[in-house]
Amino acid sequence: MGCCTGRCTLVFLCSLQLLAALERQIFDFLGFQWAPILGNFLQIIVVILGLFGTIQFRPRYIVVYTVWTALWVTWNVFIICFYLEVGGLSKETDLMTFNISMHRSWWREHGPGCIRRVVRPSAPGILDDYSYVSVTGCIIDFQYLEVIHSAIQILLSLIGFVYACYVISIFMEEEDSCRNK
């Protein structure tokens, strides 16, 4: 097989997806976003499975990758709707942390150009752990950064889905031609 085959392209796309998922996982860990952390973890596992299936000529693994890719696109569409507050969703809820903490997106306070100012509570009896954080001067708001991350994931997943279907069909044709001989 030549180097510019669908199989090589799928390996390249899976590698890009793996890098994008790892980058997203890091920032979700920094923001204690437990729902996306779980989703990213599953994405990393399935993309590795898809890579293995592509390299080792295992079409069943690529089918698992293909099915997961459809679910991953759905999850990322949900994240876009969540951060853009579509359909009654609110980015101010604790949905992404499974309602166990008050953490939000790491990008909320650390986005490009953001100036973060911490104001300690002055009232007696209030724990020092809690403080008000004022964020100003952001070049791009955090919800748009989250939307961009999800849009990149969707784009990579859709292209990966198409190539995975192509590679599966190629593997099946090769398998059928070997059986007919």
Automatic annotation (TrEMBL):
Top-level taxon of the source organism: Eukaryota
Primary location group: membrane
Protein name: Sodium/potassium-transporting ATPase subunit beta-1-interacting protein
Signal peptide interval: 1-21
Similarity section: Belongs to the NKAIN family.
Species lineage: Eukaryota, Metazoa, Chordata, Craniata, Vertebrata
Keyword match Membrane: yes
Gene symbol of the encoding locus: NKAIN3
Entries under InterPro entries matching the protein: Na/K-Atpase_Interacting (IPR008516)
Membrane topology: Multi-pass membrane protein
This protein's record includes keyword Transmembrane: yes
Spans traversing the lipid bilayer: 34-55, 62-86, 151-172
